[in-house]
């Protein structure tokens, strides 16, 4: 059965007398003063833990962002381009054949047309496919949209807007040497 009555009424409090404590043994304490309540809290430890958590957060952020930034900002090339490169051996390009070599950042097609060596860019000026030497037709041909060039890079036919840029090529001893035109 629920208790009734006003337990905090002055009448009831008065019956407790002046010396009686206002709280009963089972009552909840109103709390300690702030200074007393914070006794035993180790602020240095808390601050240290805060730094550790912050450090871990920073490490996770850096490890996540680093690949993204590296992807967005390509590395600066430290390799200087050369004017002249020994690309291979003269025997690599026998009569009536062609071979593509890397020349700095360019791809160069060296053609041996009946013993005469020529070199042009190997990248079609239409949409950038790699061309090849067609020994049966004696032309440089692009497999993508049918561009045709002379071995010197001039346009024969096709959709390409420009001739192939030329390079110089020569043989020294066994070496095949390509030079910027
Ligand atoms: S890319 Fe060579 S013809 Fe189109």
TrEMBL record:
Its EC number is 1.10.9.1. Residues 85-178 form the Rieske domain. It is an enzyme of class 1 (oxidoreductase). Keywords: 2Fe-2S, Disulfide bond, Iron, Iron-sulfur, Metal-binding, Oxidoreductase. Its cofactor is [2Fe-2S] cluster. This is Plastoquinol--plastocyanin reductase. It comes from Chlorobium ferrooxidans DSM 13031. The lineage of its organism: Bacteria, Pseudomonadati, Chlorobiota, Chlorobiia, Chlorobiales. One of its GO terms (molecular function) is metal ion binding. One of its GO terms (cellular component) is membrane. InterPro entries: Rieske_2Fe-2S, Rieske_2Fe-2S_sf, Rieske_Fe-S_prot, Rieske_Fe-S_prot_C. Residues 1-35 are annotated as: Disordered. Pfam families: Rieske.
